[in-house]
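User: Can you recover a sequence for this backbone? Please restate the input before giving your answer.

Assistant: Of course. Working from this structure:
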């Protein structure tokens, strides 16, 4: 845990000057971080700013914190969208944490042809478990914005009827798919704060129909080579290449 996330309800006086922390995060601060009165901790308000807090009162399962926040800090994430074919439950849990840590503001969970119907009934998608994985991703990456989650059980009606409205602000669209590299620079890579959308298929990949349906709606193939990858590997590698292009540090040379 690299950040202690505070819910707005944990400020008894409502002014963000004093917070009362209990449960898992209080135990972690006490047992792992060694928090005692006077210890300073990195904190953030869920969907709010980042800051620091000084421990005022320390008990085994409860901390009282004096907080100070930086205006606007932690709120500058681009409006990126991840379209993720629902993987096996354990992989899904990891992908949710990875995607949140990587800064995606919206995660659309899709059932594609190679996704087993039972995956949409996974306990990972129960609201409490889903929230726990998203919070873990935020804590890891020192982010505060909780991503929106959208579940789409049917690929075709989603792509044909709702995709364009959903991605109205994202003209930079990519679909991860194994294939050969193509030569030449790609002028369509995102720059600065330009938002992007990335579609990642299951480990068996998207079908030809699904890839062509996405390409017909402005998605360009982003490939890491001919070999299929684990879902979480493709997610991390492609996101790194695409977001690196924003600062000119990197970019997918296989699109």
């Amino acid at each position: 845990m690299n950040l202690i996330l505070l819910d707005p309800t944990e400020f008894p006086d409502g002014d963000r000057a004093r917070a009362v922390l209990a449960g898992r995060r209080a135990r972690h601060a006490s047992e792992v971080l060694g928090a005692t009165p006077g210890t300073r901790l990195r904190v953030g308000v869920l969907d709010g700013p980042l800051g620091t807090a000084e421990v005022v009162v320390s008990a085994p399962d409860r901390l009282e914190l004096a907080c100070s926040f930086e205006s606007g800090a932690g709120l500058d994430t681009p409006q990126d969208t991840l379209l993720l074919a629902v993987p096996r439950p354990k992989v899904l849990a990891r992908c949710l944490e990875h995607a949140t840590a990587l800064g995606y503001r919206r995660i659309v969970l899709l059932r594609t042809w190679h996704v087993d119907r039972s995956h949409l009934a996974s306990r990972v998608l129960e609201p409490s478990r889903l929230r726990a994985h998203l919070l873990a991703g935020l804590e890891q990456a020192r982010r505060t914005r909780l991503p929106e989650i959208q579940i789409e059980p049917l690929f075709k009606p989603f792509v044909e009827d709702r995709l364009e409205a959903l991605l109205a602000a994202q003209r930079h669209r990519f679909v991860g798919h194994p294939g050969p590299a193509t030569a030449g620079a790609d002028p369509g890579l995102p720059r600065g704060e330009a938002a992007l959308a990335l579609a990642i298929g299951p480990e068996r990949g998207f079908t030809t129909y699904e890839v062509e349906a996405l390409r017909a709606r402005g998605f360009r193939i982003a490939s890491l080579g001919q070999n299929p990858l684990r879902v979480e590997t493709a997610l991390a590698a492609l996101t790194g290449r695409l977001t690196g292009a924003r600062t000119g540090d990197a970019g997918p040379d296989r699109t």
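That completes the design. The helical segments are 24-31, 89-101, 127-141, 155-166, 208-215, 231-244.
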